[in-house]
Amino acid sequence: xxxxxxxxxxxxxxxxxxxxxxxxxxxxxxxxxxxxxxxxxxxxxxxxxxxxxxxxxxxxxxxxxxxxxxxxxxxxxxxxxxxxxxxxxxxxxxxxxxxxxxxxxxxxxxxxxxxxxxxxxxxxxxxxxxxxxxxxxxxxxxxxxxxxxxxxxxxxxxxxxxxxxxxxxxxxxxxxxxxxxxxxxxxxxxxxxxxxxxxxxxxxxxxxxxxxxxxxxxxxxxxxxxxx
Length: 228
Ligand SMILES: Nc1nc2c(ncn2[C@@H]2O[C@H](COP(=O)(O)OP(=O)(O)OP(=O)(O)O)[C@@H](O)[C@H]2O)c(=O)[nH]1
Ligand SMILES: [Mg+2]
Prior knowledge:
seven-stranded parallel β-sheet, alpha/beta, binds magnesium ion, binds guanosine-5'-triphosphate, 18% strand, Rossmann fold
């Protein structure tokens, strides 16, 4: 249980984060890009999805990545292997990115000319839900190996997102995972949510996801008409 003082501090923390997130969004809008927060449990396939998405992107829709991890630069290195511009934020003991960390990077780093900026959050299904970063879109990845009960057990992150991507669909034949059950649980929390079912191994579902995100960029960025 939290006492009144702890609750007050938490409220102030979240309010400050909201203000900085709005500030970050002004930066994103000035830069003329679509900012996309990718959230999931550790290992659900965020970095793999970014790498596969980049390969399918039209040349006139370059991407960049802000990569959040507690320590190390492993994911940034994986992205740079594919020539994807990637910028590390090390969160230390924090289990999520926050708007202050992103603001600091935006104020000290010149991002390349890109149309979609992915913010890969720290692997965690709880805290990232509470700390908006200024993104335009919030995407949650749920991998087939995690179990179809996760939307019921971790509702906040699924309640407050634009799309859910079921990842590792190549493993469906080997895991007891009901897509129908998971989709029903998420839709009851968030009726407007969109679903994708993808595998970066087989490539299934990736073109549909790519088309959707490019369409979102076309709508968000004025004068952008990326063809597919
Ligand atoms: N079978 C299968 N494995 C996958 C797929 N996508 C990713 N993986 C594997 O899942 C593991 C984790 O993938 P990552 O892309 O590193 O996951 P992540 O969400 O970025 O992980 P963190 O950043 O540590 O939270 C790796 O071993 C990937 O090879 C997929 O579509 N199918
Ligand atoms: Mg990763």
